[in-house]
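Reading group handout, session on sequence-to-structure problems. Before we discuss, look at one worked example. The prompt was deliberately terse, the way you'd type it at a terminal:

> structure Pyrroline-5-carboxylate reductase

The input record follows.
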Amino acid sequence: MTRLAFIGGGNMARSLIGGLLKTGVAPATISVAEPRAEGRQELGRDFGIACYAENRLAAAEAEVIVLAVKPQVMPSIHGELQDLLQRQRPLLISIAAGVRLDQLERWFGTGLPIVRCMPNTPALIGAGATGLCANGRVSPAQKAQAQHILDAAGLTRWIDDETLMDTVTAISGSAPAYFFALVEALEEAAVTQGLPRETARALAAQTCFGAGRMLTESGEDPAVLRQRVTSPHGTTQAALESFSADGLSRIVARAVAAATRRGVELAAELDAQP
Ligand SMILES: NC(=O)C1=CN([C@@H]2O[C@H](COP(=O)(O)OP(=O)(O)OC[C@H]3O[C@@H](n4cnc5c(N)ncnc54)[C@H](OP(=O)(O)O)[C@@H]3O)[C@@H](O)[C@H]2O)C=CC1
Ligand SMILES: O=C(O)[C@@H]1CCC=N1
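And the output record:
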């Protein structure tokens, strides 16, 4: 069993750990470094994994280290891991938005195998979507190892051109929040029209779930699925025409561009640091 350490035990680490354990990975093979005492307590209680305040202790025996800290924290954590990284030469997997492979190589060491990936929070229930990109030091066996870890979180796709990782972030890493926001808006609209909030939320959330399952399980084009809902001159057509008049495609394209741009900016901000 691969020994796996997470540096940072926040939202995304929790989602990945939850997904891994659900596929039968033994808790004893996972350790986490988390500075907050309450965070460590919760991780230990919820997952039965070993939790440490110090990164070095969590990573001590790891073959794979998942870097799950905020992008801004990333440049500051290599120092305490340096000796261990040179000695053990583990596979590093970064999940940080924006942070490029060349930056990770600069901070952690040019000779190390590094995978940059972008998962999302549905990993917690094994329904995540992850894009992965490897540097030249990653062996085929390590590539398979990274894929195996992220497969536990759901669907995986390798991305050859690293510059597209910011697009991946914009359409899958960040995107669960877009669907949550849409359900929030549907709920609010229904409540305004008089539907009880609990009923509105349940109907909107289940519809999101059902549409998602149809998209992923039917193998059909989203446009075909949409057309099947849309009776000529019916209610759906009225709603879609309203979306179109308000420029839904343009709104979405602008949001995706904003998220993509922010990924590039996050990396540039780190380059600008002394
Ligand atoms: N949330 C999401 O949906 C997704 C996030 N990501 C990426 O995952 C990474 C983590 O994001 P997220 O989980 O949301 O953030 P969180 O803030 O929830 O998690 C980061 C964790 O790292 C801890 N931490 C801070 N400093 C250090 C340190 N020096 N050493 C070890 N741990 C430290 C934080 O502790 P403390 O709270 O005490 O600061 C926190 O628990 C980010 O880089 C993000 O871009 C990628 C895909 C999706
Ligand atoms: O919002 C963010 O920056 C992180 C990356 C993708 C999802 N959450």
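Points for discussion. First: DSSP finds twelve helices and eight strands in the chain. Second: The chain has a mean pLDDT of 97.
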